[in-house]
Amino acid sequence: MGVLGLTPFIQKTCPEVIQTLPGRFRSLAGKKIVIDGTLITQRFHFAPIPHPHKHVLCWYRLARHLQASNVQVICVFDGRERSAAKEREVERRRRDRMVTAARGVFEIDRLSRLRRLTKSLRAWQVEEGANEATPNLLSLKDLMQKLKAEGVPIPPPPPLRPASPQQICSLGSPDLSTRHLDSALTGWLASIIRMISDAGISSPSSETGHPLVPKDIAQLYVEYQQSVPQIMSLAEAYEREASTIQEASLQDIEEARIDYGLSKSQHGLIMEEGKLWEQLANSEDLQSVQIAVKSLASTLEAKSSVLSESYARRTNPPTSETYEQSRDVLRAMGIPCIEPSGPYEAEALAASLVLNGYADYVASEDTDVLIYEAPLVRNVATGAAPLVLISGSDVRTVLQLDRARFIDFALLLGTDFSQRIKNVGPARALKFIREHGSIERVIEREVQYPPRIPVEEYLQQIALARSVFNTLPPTPDASLLQQGVPDESAVWAILDKFGLHRYVADDWEHTHVLSGNYFADNPAAA
């Protein structure tokens, strides 16, 4: 996560400390960088490339570019021991994965529903074959109007559960779309069908084997209606989960009810799906149905498919094998791979190596590096954008803070080791630290900005977090940091093992797969 809001604050307040390197790795010729191997592996793993070992390919291509630019590399990966100060952040990420998985289930259901609907409507168009209203088209309109007019309450679905890998890989399975139809809902659906039959509404000819019958369209509409109450079910599930965690506050839970529901994109698709059903209900002729299919149903299906694929990637995190395979190809290319000895993070050891003179820059996206006052190179694995160089010591100097106040400024913003105080952004945090000198005095004097948890507990958290940034991990023996000789036969054996030769032969470019975040997409965006 890094320090919340620090990068945009630097860009706005002191842009002079940011150096752009348009030549990318050529600008670092003759230098040595320490790469945060854990973070970069995650970026490669989540890239939208349809290959199970894309991380190996991405590392291979990145290493080739660095070696061609005469840049030496050390890769640092997280060790087995984790800092006790990061337990809260680890728990937060676990809950985030739970919510992401539940959102993925929701999107799988919607995609299945939309696929069946567009298939049925397209087939209906073929059967109708004319632009004038027919009995079959009138039955669709009457059905929709009766479904809307009935207004029978729909029982809420059971709480969403995270998707299993089998579910995520089975987007077309009809079972996924109907698992929420409990007995009460099934009974209501049966009554709707009886009401349709009693009213004399006909179905498309069964002789054609057409999939669109009143029961089908009723079920699809019910599934849409039932999906709306799920908007709050994710937040309620988070509330139950958070209530068992000691540091969860009422404020945390209240904000979770907003933040942990469906994403903005999913909210938007719910509204668009509602417009689709409204348009179908008001269709007067076949052309109206065609418009609904072309302009709404097909577009919605495409959007839902993109979201489903995104959530499928996000619910499949890197495994220990992912990291080991990455280290294997790097070592074969002569790049030393190390990890901390003790409860330290990879970015902390990377900063320690630079500050102790073993390398020139840390290559990462984690702004924690700046609080150690090491020079940070960003955008190493982000498209073809220029590299960005920021020196942590330059940032501290420009902000006119001593070392202790610089650390407290960062902790007040919120880090992996400390909670953010509500309504205290970078500008206000800097003002408070300059005026009061420490977080303890800020809490004492700025009483309108209380921590989210009891003050004593918060200050214990701060004390532990300070020790993290005041303690550099020990560096390993210098012999472990020496550049090795690339073993081309071993490299090719690894590429061959994972079926990657074709991509290498095509000179596939790793920088094309990312555009600024882990996933090159943002399903939470509007």
TrEMBL record:
State the taxonomy lineage: Eukaryota, Fungi, Dikarya, Basidiomycota, Agaricomycotina
Q: Which UniProt keywords apply?
A: Endonuclease, Hydrolase, Magnesium, Metal-binding, Nuclease
**Protein name as annotated:** PIN domain-like protein
Q: Where is the XPG-I domain?
A: 331-401
Which InterPro entries does its entry note? 5-3_exonuclease_C_sf, HhH2, PIN-like_dom_sf, XPG-I_dom, XPG/Rad2, XPG_DNA_repair_N
Q: Mind telling me which Gene3D superfamilies this protein's record contains?
A: 5' to 3' exonuclease, C-terminal subdomain (1.10.150.20), 5'-nuclease (3.40.50.1010)
What's an example of a GO molecular-function annotation for this chain? DNA binding
Question: Pfam family of this protein, just one?
Answer: XPG_I
Q: Which cofactor does it need?
A: Mg(2+)
Q: What does the entry give for GO biological process?
A: DNA repair
Q: XPG N-terminal domain: which residues? A: 1-100
